[in-house]
């Protein structure tokens, strides 16, 4: 099994990476079925659901259950389809075009059901999963509180065992809970006796459970978002989920999976934004010319498509890692999954969440711009997409929290000896002064491979310097950690693009020109960002002659002869415009 985060220290091969071109016939059929359901059954009712027609939401969720679109992650032994993680990912991507309804679906199959799927005992799974798999019951995840958002461990909700020892008494309030207004089953986090962080399965019908009013949201209006009030709720002790005092393992690991699924949803939404925009710009004329023919329009289209290619390549690469790790456990007794295994790819899941949500925001923003004034009008779908996209940078831990977690967790692993980070950093330190920059050898993607190789070395230089200078105060260096995480994000995305393109060329014996163009465009722009982030970080950590020396070393790792991006973008855009949508 490929170790999480190993891409920073090891060379990766296209033979080991999963890409959308690897879909089986079954995967394609699942994608088509999901797409047909969303476009034919969900989208016609989106306007009414945007006005809180939750009766229709529930009706459609049951239809989704009948089609098996709620049961992909539920093992067969508990009434589910027990599909592989690739199938589950495809469903999340295809469902994502449905605005707030996709949030209802995603919260139900993701953070709503996964706590029981991954951490419930056999009895809990037998009791709850069959109804969740069909849509007879809807799931919700209750973590956020008025004083505890990204600080997930700072919750105030308490649980106290009653005198008879039969029930826990839960008291507290949860805020901004997705699906709260329609949910039947809640995973609630509380501290036993105010100390031991634990998770509980709470049913809506338990006395003392009440639901607040529907929130008035900027976007995702067709999903339900309410407060959940727990007023001395009696919860059977059998509904303690996992071990007493170990609820944080459930919360954080379920969020890892939620981040991955959010990244997958952002891909589908990004594709849809281009799908509604490209035909529009071919029909919209200014100065007697379709704006799709303007070079600046083509530059925008190519930039967005290459960003989407990087996002798609990264998230499906992670899907392959998760599939390899978790799919073999399907069918084992009780389908028990060690928390450590779920946590293995926490870095990749955070990177997916950060990169894909920011890519989506840029894509919908530019697509709205390409609509001109019409993009600001509610009659056009892009205006809803623009509003709906914004929550993704907040959901499942803000992007800022995820940015800090990426290098922070990696440094903690290194300090425990789980990854040889410091040895690798020392090796780079010995190399720096005598390092002679390599030149591309003229082979396909040779320059882009140098970007990745040198990008990884820059990460090691910065992490090593940060650890040396700040030791126990690393967590306070949030700006530097964020910059390093941004570099890591682009390194992962660049490498994912390259590996996907290499694999396509090797397995099809074709030129794969569009994939090559996307990879060249994205990698060059990403590497320029890496250079800027590295300069800013070094300027913070060093000064005077030490800074001059550090910048001279950095210059050796970031020197390159630029490719003609303007021409590359014009060529890439023409294919997208001809196809009326994102195309690879």
From TrEMBL:
GO terms assigned for molecular function: acyl-CoA dehydrogenase activity; flavin adenine dinucleotide binding
Keyword Flavoprotein: yes
Acyl-CoA oxidase/dehydrogenase middle domain sequence ranges: 141-233
Cofactor entry: FAD
Catalytic activity: a 2,3-saturated acyl-CoA + A = a 2,3-dehydroacyl-CoA + AH2
Occurrences of domain Acyl-CoA dehydrogenase/oxidase C-terminal (ranges): 245-404
PROSITE patterns reported in the protein's UniProt record: ACYL_COA_DH_1 (PS00072), ACYL_COA_DH_2 (PS00073)
SUPFAM superfamilies linked to this entry: Acyl-CoA dehydrogenase C-terminal domain-like (SSF47203), Acyl-CoA dehydrogenase NM domain-like (SSF56645)
Sequence ranges assigned to domain Acyl-CoA dehydrogenase/oxidase N-terminal in this UniProt record: 24-136
Domain Acyl-CoA dehydrogenase-like C-terminal: 455-556
Top-level taxon of origin: Bacteria
Signal peptide (UniProt feature, chain positions): none
Pfam families: Acyl-CoA-dh_C, Acyl-CoA_dh_1, Acyl-CoA_dh_M, Acyl-CoA_dh_N
Keywords: FAD, Flavoprotein, Oxidoreductase
UniProt similarity note: Belongs to the acyl-CoA dehydrogenase family.
PANTHER family named among the record's database cross-references: ACYL-COA DEHYDROGENASE, ISOVALERYL-COA DEHYDROGENASE, MITOCHONDRIAL-RELATED
Protein name: Acyl-CoA dehydrogenase
Organism: Niallia taxi
């Amino acid at each position: 099994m490929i170790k999480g985060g190993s891409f920073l220290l090891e060379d990766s091969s296209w033979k080991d990476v999963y890409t959308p071109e690897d879909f089986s016939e079954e995967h394609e059929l699942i994608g088509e079925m999901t797409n047909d359901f969303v476009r034919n059954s969900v989208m016609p009712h989106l306007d009414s659901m945007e006005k809180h027609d939750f009766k229709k939401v529930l009706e459609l969720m049951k239809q989704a259950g009948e089609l098996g679109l709620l049961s992909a992650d539920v093992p067969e032994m508990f009434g589910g389809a027990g599909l592989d993680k690739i199938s589950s990912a495809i469903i999340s991507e295809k469902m994502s075009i449905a605005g707030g309804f996709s949030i209802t679906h995603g919260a139900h199959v993701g953070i709503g059901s996964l706590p029981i799927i991954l951490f419930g005992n056999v009895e809990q799974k037998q009791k709850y999963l069959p109804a969740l798999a069909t849509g007879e019951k809807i799931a919700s995840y209750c973590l956020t509180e008025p004083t505890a958002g990204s600080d997930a461990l700072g919750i105030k909700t308490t649980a106290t065992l009653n005198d008879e020892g039969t029930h826990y008494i839960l008291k507290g309030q949860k805020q901004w809970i997705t699906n709260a207004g329609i949910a039947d089953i809640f995973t609630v986090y509380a501290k036993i006796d105010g100390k031991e962080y634990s998770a509980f399965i709470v049913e809506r019908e338990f006395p003392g459970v009440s639901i607040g009013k529907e929130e008035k949201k900027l976007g995702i209006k067709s999903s339900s978002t309410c407060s959940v009030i727990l007023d001395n709720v009696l919860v059977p002790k059998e509904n303690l989920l996992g071990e007493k005092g170990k609820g944080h393992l459930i919360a954080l690991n379920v969020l890892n999976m939620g981040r991955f699924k959010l990244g997958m949803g952002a891909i589908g939404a990004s594709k849809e934004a281009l799908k509604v925009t490209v035909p529009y710009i071919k029909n919209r004329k200014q100065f007697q010319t379709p704006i799709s023919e303007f070079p600046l329009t083509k530059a925008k289209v190519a930039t967005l498509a290459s960003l989407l290619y990087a996002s798609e390549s990264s998230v499906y690469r992670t899907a392959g890692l998760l599939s390899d790790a978790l799919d073999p456990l399907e069918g084992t007794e009780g389908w028990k999954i060690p928390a450590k295994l779920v946590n293995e790819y926490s870095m990749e899941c955070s990177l997916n969440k950060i990169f894909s949500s920011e890519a989506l925001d840029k894509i919908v923003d530019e697509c709205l711009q390409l609509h001109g004034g019409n993009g600001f009008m509610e009659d056009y779908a892009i205006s809803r997409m623009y509003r709906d996209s914004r929550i993704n940078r907040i959901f499942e831990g803000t992007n800022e929290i995820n940015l800090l977690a990426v290098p922070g967790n990696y440094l903690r692993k290194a300090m425990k000896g789980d990854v040889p980070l410091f040895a690798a950093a020392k090796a780079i330190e010995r190399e720096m002064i005598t390092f002679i920059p390599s030149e591309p050898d003229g082979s396909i993607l040779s320059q882009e491979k140098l970007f990745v190789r040198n990008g990884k070395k820059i990460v090691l230089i910065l992490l090593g310097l940060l650890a040396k200078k700040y030791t126990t105060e690393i967590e306070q260096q949030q700006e530097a950690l964020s910059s390093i995480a941004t570099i890591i994000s682009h390194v992962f995305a660049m490498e994912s693009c390259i590996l996907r393109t290499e694999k396509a060329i090797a397995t099809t014996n074709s030129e794969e020109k569009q994939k090559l163009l996307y990879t060249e465009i994205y990698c060059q722009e990403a590497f320029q960002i890496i250079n800027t982030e590295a300069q800013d970080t070094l300027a913070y950590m060093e000064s005077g002659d030490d800074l001059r020396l550090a910048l001279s070393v950095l210059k050796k790792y970031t020197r390159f002869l630029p490719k003609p991006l303007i021409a590359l973008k014009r060529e890439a855009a023409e294919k997208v415009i001809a196809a009326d949508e994102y195309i690879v």
